[in-house]
Design a protein that fits this description.
Elements (H helix, E strand, L loop, with lengths): L2 E2 L5 E2 L1 H16 L14 H9 L5 E5 L3 H16 L3 H4 L3 E5 L7 H19 L3 H17 L4
Parallel strand pairs: 3-4
Antiparallel strand pairs: 1-2
Helix pairs in contact: 1-2, 3-5
């Protein structure tokens, strides 16, 4: 969605959005700016997360296969684009619609699913290898966990 300038140069969507936000921040001076974007791989979400350096990224999730398949595709795309390492520390999963009944069980399932997808797609392989080596080391020395 680049904009063609009068001089023939193109202004990228991320630069346009950032310029708009700076102008609004200068005028309104908010304490915080929230940008609601569609989840998944789209230009607005991508711009907010990767190009503009959002400090906190809230990922709203329902406990279900569709949610986790969508986030898996997004996280794998971030891996391919080599931005996952820059983004992952700023991610927080938020339960979107938590049922009134059996809340604890629902949230436990949500947490387990989130953890599983983070391990599979965002956490470093090196970390998992070092954990395995640590376990082997403890077993060799007779130390129990």
């Amino acid at each position: 969605m680049p904009k063609l300038q009068v001089d023939g140069t193109r202004e990228m969507w991320s630069a346009r959005l950032e310029r708009l936000l700076h102008a609004l921040e200068a005028r309104v001076q908010p304490d915080v700016v929230l940008i609601d974007s569609r989840s998944g791989i789209d230009e607005i979400a991508s711009t907010c997360i990767t190009d503009m350096g959002a400090n906190l990224i809230l990922l709203f999730a329902l406990e279900g296969e569709q949610t986790w398949n969508g986030y898996r595709m997004l996280f794998e795309q971030w891996q391919r684009a080599h931005v996952a390492e820059q983004i992952r520390e700023r991610l927080k999963i938020v339960g979107a619609i938590v049922p009134e009944l059996d809340r604890v069980s629902y949230l436990e399932g949500l947490r387990e699913s989130a953890y599983g997808i983070f391990v599979d797609t965002l956490y470093d392989e090196l970390h998992r290898q070092s954990q395995s080596l640590l376990g082997q080391s403890l077993a060799a020395t007779g130390s129990g966990v």
